[in-house]
Design brief:
The chain is α+β, with helices and mostly antiparallel strands and 322 residues long. It folds into 3 domains: 59 residues, Roll (Structural Genomics Hypothetical 15.5 Kd Protein In mrcA-pckA Intergenic Region, Chain A); 81 residues, Pseudouridine synthase (2-Layer Sandwich), CATH 3.30.2350; 145 residues, 2-Layer Sandwich (Pseudouridine synthase). It has 7 helices and 15 strands. Strands 5, 6, 7, 8, 9, 12, 13, 14 and 15 form a 9-stranded mixed β-sheet that branches. A 4-stranded antiparallel β-sheet has the order 1-4-2-3. The chain has a two-stranded antiparallel ribbon with strand order 10-11. Strand 2 and strand 3 form a beta hairpin. Helix 1 packs across helix 2 and helix 6 packs antiparallel against helix 7. The longest helix is centred in the middle third of the chain and has 12 residues. It is globular, with a radius of gyration of 20 Å. The relative contact order is 0.12.
Length: 322
């Protein structure tokens, strides 16, 4: 059993159900949180509470995560891992596109989690059910830096760091058009779409979300942005850039067919790009045991380099230093 941990309820979470709050903070399935609550592992201001308990700002939620075994039938699977860094407490990967991080509805096999079990069998005892060592996630078609815990101690520390926004996450994004400002902040609440339940949208009453961006280059109707993810809502970058008026190239859900209005010679590569043009580029966090600062950078994927060259006729511009 892991050590007890605490999260203070911020003002924006007032009125949120206890199980929903912890699920959002820890990026875990709500049914898993409900099992913790039923097992007496969660208290609000030192008192046990039901999953449906409505939180108030300033309350203290104490919880002791239960280290869970993986779902029966989840077996290790062969598959390459692009390792950026490896040590006893953690491993850092460069996730490819078209690979889901963990099992989900309609996707019981063929995920990064299954590959982790083969390469790092010790992660079977770390983290939540079906998520061996997973402390954060990327969308299925987003490439880039992903951190995995190899020990329970590292898992508890890293999940807290992500939940408490003590991790800096920088992305590269290719979008249609050119933002009016060369740098800016998008601070708009994000919630579930009222009718398309698999989608997120900017809406009143949504969870607070902030995305900072800086223009790196703009040519032939597209821009390359550095994006600093201040919060971590589902599909946040994709939703915020759409709200800014500059959707990601290739995004099948939040994108737009802006390529139709561009020069004929650049339409085809833009039309054919088959995933959101988004890359989790850099990650800055503290080591979960020593506390020393760590920085990781994932190489720019070939498809993004090719897209930029096909549209602009140039190689990617020089990127900002750390």
């Amino acid at each position: 059993m892991a050590d007890k941990r605490t999260i203070d309820v911020p003002p924006e979470a007032s009125g949120v159900r206890l199980d929903s709050f912890l699920a959002q903070q820890l990026d875990l399935p709500r049914n898993q949180i409900q099992q913790w609550i039923r097992a007496g592992q969660v208290q609000v201001d030192s008192e046990t509470a039901k999953a449906s308990y409505s939180l108030s700002a300033g309350e203290r939620v104490d919880f002791t995560p239960l280290v869970r075994q993986l779902d029966e039938g989840m077996e290790p699977e062969a598959g390459d891992l692009d390792i950026l860094h490896e040590e006893a407490d953690l491993v850092v990967l460069n996730k490819p596109s078209e690979l889901a991080v963990h099992p989900g509805a309609g996707r019981p096999t063929g995920t990064l989690a299954h590959r982790l079990l083969l390469h790092y069998p010790e992660t079977a005892e770390v983290g939540g059910r079906g998520r061996p060592g997973i402390v954060h996630r990327l969308d299925k078609d987003t490439t880039g830096v992903l951190v995995v815990a190899r020990t329970d101690r590292a898992y508890q520390t890293l999940t807290s760091a992500f939940a408490e926004r003590r991790v800096r996450k920088l992305y590269l994004a290719m979008v249609f058009g050119r933002p009016k400002e060369t740098r800016g902040e998008i601070e708009l609440p994000i919630g579930r779409h009222p009718s398309r339940r698999k989608e997120m949208t900017v809406r009143p009453g949504g969870r607070p979300a902030r995305t900072d961006y800086e223009l790196i280059s703009c040519e032939n109707g597209i821009s390359l942005l550095e994006v600093d993810l201040a919060t971590g809502r589902t599909h946040q970058i994709r939703v915020h850039l759409k709200a800014l008026g500059h959707p990601l190239i290739g995004d099948p859900i939040y994108g737009e067919a802006r390529w139709k209005g561009l020069a004929r010679e650049v339409r085809r590569p833009l039309q054919d790009f088959s995933r959101p043009a988004l890359h989790a580029w850099r990650l800055h966090l503290a080591h979960p045991v020593s506390g020393q600062p760590l920085r990781f950078e994932a190489p720019i994927p070939t498809d993004l380099k090719g897209l930029w060259q096909d549209v602009t006729g140039r190689e990617l511009p020089e990127l900002p230093a750390w």
